[in-house]
């Protein structure tokens, strides 16, 4: 297996597959040699290449774990070096854009490409933050298209099953709409809230007295800014739609506070608490 991008996501998958003894050799690829040497020393990968073409040469499974903005270039660099019987997949947080890039650049290899998105992660970055259990009992969404080879699809299903994940399939556009609401919007809110408070005149005092609620809500604002910039640009339309809905609800709350409408405020808060409690207790 070749993993292009050995960070939290790619590194955790490598650890899980090695732990499951599901692969003879895991090859990592990236631009930072020191980072790759660290991955070898941690036992995440067996060896590494800095040239993607060399990394995928002879690989049975290729996992592209680079930022969304780098997908097109990476597919273009890999296309002519992928073995005829290899399977290729990705871990991108938006799928329509990745599918478009893959269709454009992978050529005859496109049918062997299975778009994927593991719904797992932390706010930490880098191979040092990776761990084999990251995907255990978490959902991985695959978004195959009509050209997707069924054998390749089953190979990627098996890959994530070895990692301990629950694998489901979804239409790519529906995936992007769902993730805009459940993942992308919360990150936008966390980043914006921290930015707003940082610009307050007494920001030092604000952060000094921030309690657990602030830490919990803004934890994801420590996520990789480059990755989340790319997600904003790649899934912009779906994010804008859900941002509009949230903004309308926030304006409704503002108006209720202005008119001292405690009944409305209580109704909104009670409904939210009920739905979140149901979510937490669904199992």
Written description of the protein model:
There is one protein chain. This protein has 283 residues and is an alpha/beta fold. It has 2 domains: 2-170, 3-Layer(aba) Sandwich (Rossmann fold); 174-280, 6-phosphogluconate dehydrogenase C-terminal fold (Orthogonal Bundle), CATH 1.10.3660. 53% of the residues lie in helices and 11% in strands. It has helices at residues 8-19, 33-41, 52-56, 71-78, 96-105, 150-162, 172-198, 203-208, 212-218, 225-234, 236-258, 262-280, and strands at residues 2-4, 27-29, 47-49, 61-64, 87-90, 113-114, 116-118, 139-142, 166-169. The protein has a 6-stranded parallel β-sheet. A 3-stranded mixed β-sheet has the order 7-8-9, covered by helices on one side. Helix 4 packs parallel to helix 5 and helix 7 (172-198) crosses helix 11 (236-258). The radius of gyration is 21 Å and the shape is globular. The mean pLDDT is 94.
């Amino acid at each position: 297996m070749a993993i292009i991008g050995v960070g939290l996501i790619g590194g955790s998958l490598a650890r899980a597959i090695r732990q499951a003894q599901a692969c003879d050799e895991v090859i990592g690829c990236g631009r930072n040699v020191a980072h790759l040497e660290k991955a070898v020393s941690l036992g995440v990968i067996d060896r590494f290449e800095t040239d993607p073409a060399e990394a995928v040469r002879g690989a049975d499974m290729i996992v592209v774990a680079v930022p969304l903005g780098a997908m097109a270039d990476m597919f273009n660099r890999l296309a002519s070096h992928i073995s005829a019987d290899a399977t290729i997949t990705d871990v991108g947080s938006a799928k329509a854009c990745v599918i478009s890039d893959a269709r454009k650049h992978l050529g005859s290899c496109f049918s062997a490409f299975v778009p994927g998105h593991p719904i797992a992660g932390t706010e930490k970055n880098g191979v040092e933050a990776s761990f084999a259990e990251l995907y255990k009992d978490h959902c991985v969404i695959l978004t195959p298209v009509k050209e997707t080879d069924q054998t390749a699809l089953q190979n990627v299903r098996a890959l994530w099953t070895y990692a301990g994940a629950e694998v489901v399939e979804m239409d790519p556009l529906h995936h992007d709409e769902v993730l805009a609401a459940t993942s992308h919007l919360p990150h936008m809110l966390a980043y914006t809230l921290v930015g707003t408070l940082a610009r307050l005149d007494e920001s030092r005092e604000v952060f000094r007295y921030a309690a657990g609620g602030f830490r919990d809500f803004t934890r994801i604002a420590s996520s990789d800014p480059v990755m989340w910039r790319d997600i904003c640009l790649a899934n912009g339309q779906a994010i804008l739609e859900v941002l509009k809905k949230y903004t309308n609800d926030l304006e409704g709350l503002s108006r209720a506070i202005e008119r001292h409408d405690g009944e409305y405020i209580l109704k909104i808060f009670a409904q939210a608490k009920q739905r979140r409690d149901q979510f937490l207790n669904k199992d």
